[in-house]
Amino acid sequence: MLLQVRAVSHSVVNRNLFHQVDLALNAGARIGLVGHNGCGKSTLLGLLSGRIPVEVGEITRRRGLRLAEVEQFLPSEAGQLDLVSLVMERGVERWQAEAMLSRLGFVPKQFVQVAATLSGGQHNRLLFARALVVEPDLLLLDEPTNHMDLATLQRFELVLAEFSGAVLAVSHDREFLDRVTDQTLFMRDEQLHHFTASYTEARLLLEAQDAAAQLARAAEEKQLASMRASAKRLKVWGRDFDSEKLSRRAQNMEKRIEKLAEQTTQVSAGSKLQMDVDLSRSRAKQVLRISDLVVRVPTDEATELFHINELVFRPGERIALLGGNGVGKTTFIKMLVAAFADQAQDRTPVAGISLSPQTQLGYYDQDLQQVATAQSMLDFAVRRALCSEDTVARALIHAGFAYDAQSTLVQDLSGGERARLLFVLLSLASPNFLILDEPTNHIDIDGKEQLEAQLESSGACLLITSHDRRFIESLAQRFLWVHEGRLQELASPEPFYAFSLDQQQQAQDDVETSAVEPAPLGVQAQGDSAAEDPEMQLLLRIDELETKLKEDLARKPKFQKPLKQAQWREELALLAEELERWS
User: Fold this and answer.
1) Sheet containing 183-188, strands listed edge to edge, beginning at the edge strand earlier in sequence
2) What is this structure's pTM?
3) pLDDT band at residue 193 using 50, 70 and 90 as cut-offs
């Protein structure tokens, strides 16, 4: 056992997050921690790491435990340091820091780059490198996949698969949880519910448990109602017939009812958060037409990112925009948003972009900059939505923001709360063309599923960028891929997934190749006798290949390297033939 939690409770601002929870983390465990926004998942990680003091209860850690935590965001004080320096802060040598950065996909020229200039996905990889370089026994991850493109995410999953320590990961990415965890903790109703299964299977088990609890509770309520009716009759009879015996029986039955009521089966209260988005459908035949458009780097007009020959969006279409980080997806989206603003203000539109006059645009930006202000939530929403205060207040309450919380400053809201606020504003505007740029980064799983259902039935035209594979596969009907400088349409996202996997595999192979440097001339790495004896070198190479093959086959199938396995087997066959000739 690495760490044990006993009867721990924690509250913030007069609100209980969890009460009397117990948890044991064993060596090698792979656990996903799931729950709605604001239920206390990040707080629990802080308690486990020691960053947050324990108020009630006890957390004990194995003596000498090496624990590392990967934060959601890069610490502000770290922004001006270069990558190598930040990793070396963990007490390692420069070569160790560089090796870990290489393993996570950074190239040597990035080692001296200032951390503040990295993208969100690169920040995540850097934080992971800082944690992993100390070879921890227990790794705590808080939303590690946010902002990662698919190739980076696949590399990240592979590194986690090879990590021998225990992992506790807070994540809203269902696909990621299914691929890297084999246990699931659901945090809800101030408690932890543990299942020895990855997310999808655990969710089904939890739903079955909930259904059984509801049936049991209904039967208990029925029994209590019958007993209350009996107690009432006894009480009336005792009074009417002046019977002390009947009155005592009524009192005893009431005490029994009170005791049974305290012991009824608990039924989950569920999340009070709602992820609603009301959209409308355009009556125009086309929402958007693009002809001969070049998407360029905003700060360098001479640099072309990709080209679009002809593209038409129609009402009701749900379109996924695919591509790795840095290919220009967000730049293209901002061009569309700017074109709509130009049309709304009767300015000359961007050449090549034509919007229907009936198009009402809604835009969800991945950095949530539209909801970054020092105003109160209610005041800001009223000004942005151009609706009455009562209308906005009711919409906020429906989204899970209690009336007394609506005076909270927007800048003090969490990422998940700001995401819900932005969806409230979009609902009040009721657009018929909605652009969603990484909408799932800050939304819990229940919120994602609510959002998927509403978007699917909305009838609005949707343009979505997301690295959440399950979200894309649940919603999208058309798939546009930014690839090799042009926008091409796919029948399914599979070619993009395959390309991303090939990229990840090649990058991993490059890292493995560069990590094994030949010994300098005159140095005999395996000793004098091995260097001088060709047969010994042959045996050593066979042993090395067999070890690699064995280790790769021991991984989960989705993390294995079939191409490398084939190469190793082919080389082993040749070496076996060579060895047989010598014998």
Assistant:
1) 67-70, 138-142, 166-170, 30-34, 183-188, 191-195
2) 0.68
3) very high
